[in-house]
Amino acid sequence: MKILAVSDVECPALWEYYRPERMEGVDVIVSCGDLRREYLEFLVTMTNKPVLYVPGNHDKGYVKNPPEGCDCIDGIVYQYRGVRFLGLGGCKFYNDPVYQYTEKQMERRVRQLRRALKKSGGVDVVVTHAAPAGCGDRQDPAHQGFVCFLDLMRRYRPRYFLHGHVHMNYDRDIPRQMTYEQTEIINAYERYTVEL
């Protein structure tokens, strides 16, 4: 399965200069948050591919007007063509209670998914907005990662962990890919393609 992960900034090649051949072979589009709903609606309409998403910390508008035609996977285990996706939107709390969580709140969200994870037999792809702690996150309060995501990877060993929130243009040393135990962590800033 070919997954196009998108996050944080709209990609001109997929929107303003869209050409169908750019989506050749893509099976599903996954948004890691902080993208305009119009962009996600454009992608689902023009590509005729499913768009799965989690909200980012700047997606307050999704509460009243979620992206039409797209599937929110925040707080659930979602299966598509046999691939198990787990979604956890939002980031570390720093100034707003909408889609921002303390470490304890995110730990609770992960614990609440244990039954669903057991029922599905685990997870293949974790989709979040925030990064795991120490794996591509930053030191400032707004971009620190969650420690509980490390435990999630240790326990369930997903193949991929896709996140956004940490823009690649913040600094030149921000990694696009990292590995934590058996999980490949991908910063989906703008766009990135993975194959499962």
Q: Which class in CATH terms?
A: Alpha Beta
Percent of residues in helical segments? 10-25%
In DSSP terms, counting alpha (H) and pi (I) runs of 4 or more, how many helices? 4
CATH-defined topology: Purple Acid Phosphatase, chain A, domain 2
Give the CATH architecture. Answer: 4-Layer Sandwich
The largest sheet is: 6 strands, mixed
The gross shape turns out to be globular
Give structural notes.
The chain has a single domain (2-195), classed as Metallo-dependent phosphatases (Purple Acid Phosphatase, chain A, domain 2). It is 18% helix and 27% strand. It has 4 helices and 13 strands. A 6-stranded mixed sheet has the order 5-6-9-10-12-11. A 5-stranded mixed sheet has the order 4-3-2-1-13, covered by helices on one side. A two-stranded parallel ribbon has the order 7-8. Strand 2, helix 1 (37-47) and strand 3 (51-53) form a beta-alpha-beta unit. The chain is globular, with a radius of gyration of 15 Å. The mean pLDDT is 96.
Topology readout:
Elements: E1 2-7, E2 28-31, H1 37-47, E3 51-53, E4 71-72, E5 77-80, E6 83-88, E7 91-92, E8 100-101, H2 103-111, H3 114-120, E9 125-128, H4 148-156, E10 160-163, E11 177-180, E12 183-187, E13 190-195
Parallel strand pairs: 1-2, 2-3, 3-4, 6-9, 7-8, 9-10, 10-12
Antiparallel strand pairs: 1-13, 5-6, 11-12
